[in-house]
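Hello forum,

I keep getting stuck at the same step: I have a sequence, I want structure tokens, and every attempt I make locally crashes halfway through. Rather than fight my setup again tonight, could one of you with a working pipeline run this one for me? It's a single chain of 393 residues.
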Amino acid sequence: MLSIALAGKPNAGKSTFYKAATLADVDIANYPFTTIDPNRGVTHVRTECPCLERAERCGDDNCHDGKRYVPVELLDVAGLVPGAHEGKGLGNQFLDALTNADVIINVVDASGATNAEGEPVEPGSHDPLEDIDFIEEEMDMWLTGIVTRNWESVERKSRSPDFDLDEALSDMLTGFGAGPADVQAVLRDLDYPADPIQWEDEDREALARAIRARTKPIIVAANKADVAAEENLQRLLDCGKPVIPTTAEGELALRKGAEAGVIDYDPGDETFEIVGDISEGQQTALSGLQETLDRWGGTGVQEALNYAVYDLLDHLTAFPVQDANKWTDAKGNVLPDAFLLPRGSTPVDLAYTVHSDIGDGYLHAVDAKSNRDISDSYELEEGDVVKIVSTAK
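Reply #2:
Ran it on my machine without issues. Output:
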């Protein structure tokens, strides 16, 4: 399962974002380091379900009238403060927790109501732009420290006649989620001495920054957009990085209301409908929230999750079935499964994602939409429905 980590300084709204996205019960408070131990839960990215093309909708609990929600892991870790890579705050604990994440959502307080350490200040008195680059800088310098501390082992290996730099760096960076393909791609774009003994501090730092950017891409959630000044939001949107305005509190209110049966709302919708009895105060609050949804096309929480997976990680959704005509599994369930795969994946990759035995026994695949065989090298597209023919049961 893909893993998304929520990063940011304390009190920026990470735990509210996490609770809104997972409906898990976590502590939310207006002081730094509310989160000590990482919260780990399941959220979903949203895509269009192929069942919209058929008379019969799929029966999956994660499909709401063609809005298909595919599970991903969400990790909420302790807040980051300047100097975290040197151990300040809960820096090392925070950064270590990010090791296995595939992508980072940097939750920024767009209202400027918390300072660099996450302490409440007068709204607008802190520049939220400062909270974007420092997250990347702390992560880059943390990884630089890891590379530097382990560089002696690379130098020792370099004395061997069969030394391979790609392999040595892959071994060193495996724990950070960098595989051989990542190392090879990064080295192609770097200028560096052939002999590791000749590498300088700037060479190791350049390697660390490139590896982090490739294996831990970052999207910014400009949180508290409903109370942020227009100037702050526009400056964030113009910063040259992927930024999505969000209101985690608004999303949490909508999901809680839907859970209670008071409103009709699916995560990612641009509007909602009141279907239960509410107080005058709740009516006022919901009216204000609808204005935010109208302005940004939603609360931004689902959009941030979607962007992280479908854009930054460049993944797609494929739907394996056993019956190519009915799009069902062996029990007659319509489109029971949805898998996220990197763009460029083939039917063989999908087979192995379903189960290693299915992959090992792979024979061929059928495009269930056209009911035609597809080649083993066919590159899957978003929403493909595929029947895998395998010797495995």
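Residues 351 and 359 are 5 Å apart (CA to CA). If your local run keeps crashing, start a new thread with the error log.
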